[in-house]
Specification:
Structural class: alpha/beta
Helix content: 40-55%
Distance between the termini: 90 Å
Length: 358
């Protein structure tokens, strides 16, 4: 009788009977074989989940580990390129091969995609790096049941207790961006954050608030906006900020991508950067250097974060436990051409209201 690694778990025969298939067919699903009809795979997978069947962790046989997986949200962004660069360099140093996948969170027929997870054990991967916004509870459970070590790179939501992650010092970055604008004489400083309740977005806005408070400047609720890390959202909020009775003279935009949306809104009003308005971004992606003018931004070390995550994963694959579950790498301000001294108050007031100064 075929059993799992769990003494108390159901046998594969029980799963097969529950799904109405033969034991060899159920075994094909467990082992990630392709020659199974989609409907049959669905029934067996549901039976596996329902009965709490735990697949044998095949990766334990791979010693020394030679293969790890990197799962990213998309392969089309410069963000993912920076992450891949860091992982590849660290993996080369460690003598590891990397399999790159995109879009683990896709759904099929309304259910989370499970094929990739099943194939992970089949190809003998020793560990996984995730550069995704988040994992689902069932995916966390699957990884724990299979005893597969994994590390999250810059998760958007705070991971469950015990999950190892690597990120940037987002609060510090918010402080640096705001202090830079304060040093140029700006006091009416707005912020366009990402997502209000998500980890990196809330930390960057908290750093902005802290820097203002340390400078003795009262916070204006109308100057705090959240654009969901999209150019469209930042464009809309920038227009709204310019329409205020007393508009800001500078803005800290919590991603480079959103900063491009703010640039567009300012251009549509005939305002120059930084002559009429100063802008600071966050990330230091290649786009920030290509913008006109080049964007002053807070650099988060994406490649270094990815390399650090790979090195932590290697230690975990060797049976070590990291001292802490969260590692943060420092951010720093990269000053370019999008920030300058606060303009003459009369000229700024007229310009920001869309009128030419007299």
């Amino acid at each position: 009788m075929v059993r799992t690694g769990s003494v108390t778990g159901p046998t594969l025969a029980v799963v097969a009977r529950e799904a109405g298939v033969s034991v060899p067919t159920a075994s094909k699903v467990v082992n990630g074989r392709e020659d199974v009809a989609p409907e049959t795979r669905r029934r067996v997978t549901e039976a596996l989940d329902r009965l709490g069947y735990v697949r044998r962790p095949r990766f334990e046989a791979a010693k020394p580990p030679g293969l790890v997986d990197l799962v990213v949200h998309s392969l089309e962004s410069s963000w993912s390129g920076a992450v891949l660069h860091g992982v590849e360099g660290a993996a080369h140093d460690a003598g590891l091969e990397v399999v790159v996948s995109a879009g683990l969170t896709r759904t099929r027929g309304g259910r989370p995609e499970r094929d990739w997870l099943d194939k992970l054990t089949t190809r003998g991967s020793a560990g996984v790096l995730f550069n995704l916004a988040e994992l689902t509870p069932s995916q966390y459970t699957w990884l724990e049941q299979h005893r597969i070590p994994f590390v999250m790179i810059d998760p958007v939501l705070e991971p469950p207790t015990g999950v190892v992650s690597v990120g940037a010092a987002n609060w510090q970055g918010g402080v640096l961006a705001t202090e830079h604008l304060l040093s140029l004489g700006h006091e009416r400083i707005a912020v366009i954050g990402g997502f209000r309740r998500k980890m990196c977005g809330s930390a960057r806005v908290a750093g902005y608030r802290s820097a203002l408070a340390s400078a003795g400047i009262g916070q204006r609720p109308e100057y705090v906006r959240y654009g969901g890390f999209s150019e469209t959202g930042a464009h809309r909020h920038m227009r709204e900020l310019l329409d205020l009775p007393e508009p800001p003279t500078a803005v800290f935009v919590c991603s480079d991508r959103m900063a491009l949306g703010a640039y567009q809104a300012l251009s549509e009003r005939g305002l120059s950067v930084p002559g009429d308005f100063s802008v600071v971004g966050f990330d230091d992606l290649p786009e920030s250097r290509w913008a006109t003018p080049a964007l002053t931004t807070v650099r988060q070390p994406l490649s270094e974060m990815a390399a650090t995550a790979l090195r932590l994963l290697v230690r975990m694959m060797a049976g070590e436990q990291p001292e802490g579950t969260r590692t943060e790498l420092s951010t720093r301000l990269v000053e370019r051409a999008s920030t300058g001294p606060v303009p003459d108050s009369r000229r700024a007031a007229d310009s920001l209201r869309g009128r030419s100064p007299r």
